[in-house]
User: What shape does this take?
Amino acid sequence: KAGPGFSGAVLGSPANVTEQGVDRPIIHPETIWLLVAAAVALVLRVRSTRWWRRVFLLLVVVLSGFVFNVQFSMAHVFSLLELRIPPLNSDTAFFLVVGIPVLVALFGNIYCGYLCPFGAFQELVGDMCPAFLRTDPYKAGWAYGRLLKYLLLAFMTFLFATTLESALASGDPLVTVFARERSRLISCLAA
Assistant: This one.
């Protein structure tokens, strides 16, 4: 209301102020998608077929990745570390900062296994790979990769805790891979 009021009072322009349900919160389409996807993921954990999982993962890649580019990232981890919780009316940010950690605490690997577009893309590419090219890493290889992932997370968390520099999250590949404008370097690294 302030903008049109200023326009009318100071600039002499007609003030076309309309009452639009200011008190009603607006739920963004990406939040609706994340809520539906989380519910479907919980169902698929219990009752799933390979075909339904692939369809769901494809939807996650397309909608969470390319259409909305909404995923849990280092920026959300940093928000939690700073105890900077987004307000409830910024529903998508609130769901990512608060909802995803709560879902993971309650249901385990629900995000990485079902809702992460980067992980979904990797799984779909792995499924499309011809059988003669597939490799099955040894258990030690999986453990090493997992350790490396968590060491990198711990290192980034330590850097943030000592510098409080939010820009550290800007290079997060999970977000930049699906960005509309990405560099060739990021595309090559993702490939």
In short: The longest helix spans residues 139-163.
